[in-house]
Specification:
The complex is a heterotrimer. Chain A folds into 2 domains: about 90 residues, Translation factors (Elongation Factor Tu (Ef-tu), domain 3); about 130 residues, Nucleotide-binding domain of ferredoxin-NADP reductase (FNR) module (Rossmann fold, 3-Layer(aba) Sandwich). Helices cover about 20% and strands about 30% of the residues of chain A. Chain A contains 6 helices and 16 strands. Chain A has a 7-stranded mixed sheet with strand order 11-9-8-7-12-13-16, with helices on both faces. Chain B has a single domain, classed as Jelly Rolls. Helices cover about 35% and strands about 30% of the residues of chain B. In chain B, the strands form 2 sheets. Chain B has a 4-stranded antiparallel sheet with strand order 1-8-3-6. In chain B, strands 2-7-4-5 form a 4-stranded antiparallel sheet, with no helix packed on it. In chain B, a hairpin with a 2-residue loop joins β4 and β5. In chain B, α1 packs across α2 and α3 packs across α4. By secondary structure, chain C is of the alpha+beta class. Chain C is built from 13 helices and 16 strands. In chain C, the strands form 4 sheets. An 8-stranded mixed sheet of chain C has the order 3-2-8-9-10-11-1-12. A 4-stranded antiparallel sheet of chain C has the order 7-6-14-13, with no helix packed on it. Chain C has a two-stranded antiparallel sheet with strand order 4-5. The chains are: A alpha/beta, B alpha+beta, C alpha+beta. Chains A and C meet through loops of A and β6, β7, β13, β14 and β15 of C. β10 of chain A pairs antiparallel with β5 of chain B, so a sheet runs across the interface.
Chain lengths: ~280, ~160, ~375
């Protein structure tokens, strides 16, 4: 087992939450909000693209939420949260000025820099674009270090698209953005279909590609299969895998995917490490 | 102005087909062009053509009373639209609308069916390609049916 | 092998002295005691608190105390709950805090009193299997990027006096797991109880601290006869194991037999009650509970033991990843015997047999492993699950 990487200098007690104040909110879609948070102690929260924090509404419990902000701006913590009930519902009700509790940053991130010199293919499904947004921002911030950068994004409908302004902006910054929705109103002039279909039309050099994939696990399996059939090596396809997390620091045992503790060995893992795991029902 | 033979040979749907076979099929083909918003066909009409899309985007639409019209699939350049001409009763199942200006090669269905009857090798080659299109479309449709991004899944 | 040069013999009087000395040095002295019809960890005010003259009979699904025909102080096998209940208690207050007038909140790390008293603990009579379990917990809970500070606080100064097993039970299999019946490291003092004309204990130190304590207890140098008798006790125990487990390539065996029909079979018996995880000395899974006022202005954040057998252990967007009993049993057993090796470098099982004894339906993991080993069914060539 590799040593647990990406851990910041550990707080004296990693289980105590830090207060962060909400300084801005955006409604992305009917059920998804983005929040910008600022630490009350002023120290910022350095993170790597793909990492997460344990976010809490004081007294209402904690959930793991991927960081969706710019790794180049650790003074601003950004989270995009979908209301699926429970703690996420309480989080989505947060207003400017509210104080939330934060622990982190935790986990193994995307490792975008390891794709330098080659093509980056980023495939996002649904809310999966949120953990990938920092990766896109990282490529944009150092665009010259990569050859082609593709963002392939699938959502349920046009109303469910996240970060619309960013999608437009990124197109102008050297990212080849392709979007598809599962179904649409006839006012939609974009593509309708599964995000895997975007892969076949995105030109990239499979031998020099680092692929980053995030979305529902079934979607990730199919996208991974498509990437492999297009010639990308399994150790150059990275997935962000989700399981139940309670502590975020590798101690509570909940997030295990057989031998991997997803909060420290992941959530980003290479396909060759997990392909057989994902094929087993109820592992 | 390139010949239909060239247009078909270059199109991904006919990749791997030798020139003789392509020229056999050229006899069934005409160039067609649709402006934005024009319909290629409507639900229920006789399904009499295979559209080989060279440029533009085609949307497959459905309409229902009391609900907004929906797009269930889009087909872009390099792909084909329509296979209802292969299976009786040979009637279109959806509407097909040009989302952008569409240039396509339309291939007459009875002509194609006749060529397949005359020459099984041609028939087999065409069926393989149609089966490939159906395979991918069916997978896409089945997975979208799962509504993976729907309300009870956070990702 | 006992270190013959430094071994001494002490008697009951010396053992009394040891307990008193440790108490005077500020340790909370703990040891096996009788309560509720079982041997469980308890407070020792003197040697008289030990279960003198008691033994146990353990089989899958059953535990009973029995009267011995001698005065052995340590004449039983694995106790009912293990020292996990002291060093890693089932409920810990992690933090508590409240909202502040500016809309923020302030929190303080919590402290939880130990049920049996406060650290530093001196544990008299911890078995080799349980010593290995402590070493495993040291790896799992201390040697991590975010160590468990509360385990650290309870465990770090613990004075451990191990006792070799003289009467293993029907569910013991420490020999198979390489964890007993006599400890060879990880203790301050090691004792082997010698019954006969005299009731004595062969003793030697495992640490300087242990040697310092031993030097203050009345003793005499051990003669070769005592050393030989101690070795015989251990040899007899080694031959008397109730169970055995072939651990050859067990990681590969369990990883490859993920769809073996035996999992369905054990699932038809398993109640998912989680007893095994509670009595297992190495299980460490926990969950959290928020205890909050109605106004949500004050809260306590508690950590509690959890079990991978619970139905919502693996809950994820609307359902559990492991919803069937089969998948949960497979998870527990595969983690314990196989994945643990990848995660922490050793097996997670110390062969104490508690999961057999305390399983209400008597499931025996040594039998489950043997059944899979006897008829392996790895996935078909083209992979995927069946």
């Amino acid at each position: 087992m590799q040593a647990e990487a990406n851990a910041p200098a550990a707080a004296p007690d990693a289980l105590l939450p830090r207060p962060f104040r909400v300084v801005a909110t955006w409604r992305e879609t009917r059920d998804t909000m983005t929040f910008e948070l600022e630490p009350l102690d002023g120290d910022g929260l350095p993170f790597a693209a793909g990492q997460f924090t344990m976010l809490q509404v004081f007294g209402a419990g904690e959930v793991p939420i991927s960081i969706s902000g710019d790794p180049g701006r650790p003074d601003r913590l950004v989270h995009t949260i979908r209301d699926v009930g429970g703690v996420t519902r309480a989080l989505c009700e947060a207003r400017e000025g509210d104080v939330l509790g934060v622990r982190g940053s935790y986990g193994r991130g995307w490792g975008v820099s390891e794709g330098a010199g080659g093509d980056i293919v980023i495939v996002a499904g649904g809310i999966g674009l949120a953990p990938l947004r920092p990766a896109v921002l990282e490529t944009v911030a150092a665009r010259h270090r990569f050859r082609r950068v593709h963002l392939l994004y699938g959502a349920r409908t046009e109303e469910d698209l996240l970060f619309r302004a960013d999608l437009d902006a990124w197109s102008g910054l050297g990212v080849e953005v392709a979007v598809t929705v599962d179904r649409a109103a006839t006012t939609w002039t974009g593509r309708v279909g599964l995000v895997t279909e975007l892969l076949r039309d995105a030109p990239f050099d499979a031998a020099r590609t680092l692929a980053l994939v995030c979305g529902p696990e079934l979607m990730m399996r199919y996208v991974a299969a498509e990437l492999i059939s297009l010639g990308v090596a399994a150790d150059r396809v990275r997935l962000s895998i989700e399981r139940n997390m309670r502590c975020g620091v590798g101690l509570c045992g909940h997030c295990q995917l057989r031998e991997y503790l997803l909060c420290v060995d992941g959530p980003v893992l290479p396909l060759d490490a997990v392909r057989s795991h994902l094929a087993v029902r109820e592992l | 102005m390139r010949s239909i033979q060239d247009l078909l040979s270059e199109h991904p749907f006919f990749a791997g087909l030798d020139d003789d076979m392509v020229s056999l099929l050229v006899g069934c083909a005409t160039n067609v062009h649709y402006r934005t918003g024009e319909y290629l066909f409507h639900e229920g009409e006789p399904a009499d053509r295979l559209f080989v899309v060279r440029r533009g985007r085609v949307a497959l639409d459905v309409h229902m009373p009391g609900q907004p019209e929906r797009v269930v699939d889009t087909v872009d350049e390099g792909a084909v639209v329509g296979w209802s001409w292969l299976v009786p009763p040979y009637r279109w199942f959806f509407d097909a609308r040009a989302v952008q200006e569409v240039s396509a090669v339309a291939m007459d269905a009875s002509c194609l069916r006749a060529k397949c009857d005359e020459d099984p090798a041609v028939g087999y080659a065409l069926m393989q390609r149609v089966a490939g299109v159906m395979y991918h479309r069916l997978q896409s449709a089945r997975v979208r049916l799962l509504d993976l991004y729907g309300a009870d899944r956070a990702g | 092998m006992a270190e013959a040069e430094s071994a001494v013999t002490i008697d009951i009087h010396g053992l009394h002295g040891l307990v008193e000395l440790l108490g005077r040095e500020g340790y909370t002295v703990l040891g096996p005691t009788l309560r509720g019809g079982a041997v469980v960890p308890g407070r020792l005010t003197s040697v008289d608190d030990l279960p003198r003259g008691w033994g146990d009979t353990q089989e899958p699904g059953s535990y009973a105390l029995r009267r011995r025909d001698d005065q052995a102080l340590f004449g039983y096998a694995a106790d009912a709950i293990s020292w996990k209940s002291v060093l890693f208690p089932s409920r810990e207050l992690i933090w508590k805090g409240g909202r502040t007038p500016d809309g923020s909140f302030s929190v303080q790390a919590g402290e939880t009193p130990g049920d049996l008293g406060e650290p530093p603990y001196a544990i008299l009579g911890i078995r080799s299997c349980d010593l290995h379990a402590v070493a495993i917990h040291d790896r799992v809970l201390r040697e991590r990027s975010h160590p468990d500070l509360r385990y650290e606080a309870r465990r770090k100064d613990a004075f451990l006096i191990t006792v070799s097993c003289s009467d293993p039970s029907g569910t013991c299999f420490c020999v198979s797991m390489g964890t007993g019946p006599r400890a060879d490291s990880g203790y301050d003092l090691a004792l082997t109880e010698l019954l006969g004309e005299e009731h004595t204990f062969l003793a030697h130190a495992g640490t300087e601290r242990g040697a310092g304590v031993l030097a203050q207890i009345p003793s005499r140098p051990a003669d070769s006869g005592a050393v030989r008798r101690a070795d015989e006790v251990v040899e007899r125990s080694t031959q008397q194991m109730g169970r055995s487990m072939d651990t050859t390539d067990i990681r590969t065996l369990l990883y490859e037999n993920v769809d073996h029909p035996r999992w369905e079979d054990v699932a038809s018996r398993c109640l998912s009650c989680g007893n095994c995880t509670m009595v297992c000395p190495t299980c460490f899974c926990t969950s959290v509970e928020e205890h909050t006022t109605l106004a949500r202005d004050r809260t306590e954040h508690w950590r509690i033991w959890d079990s991978c057998f619970t139905s919502d252990f693996s809950y994820l967007h609307g359902g559990s990843v492991r919803s069937s009993a089969k998948s949960r049993y497979r998870q527990w057993m595969t983690h314990k015997l196989a994945s643990w090796i990848d995660q922490f470098g050793t097996s997670g099982c110390v062969g104490c047999g508690r999961c057999l004894t305390w399983c209400p339906v008597g499931i025996d993991i040594t039998e489950e492993v043997a059944a899979i080993r006897a008829d392996p069914q790895p996935p078909t060539e083209h992979g995927g699950s069946r």
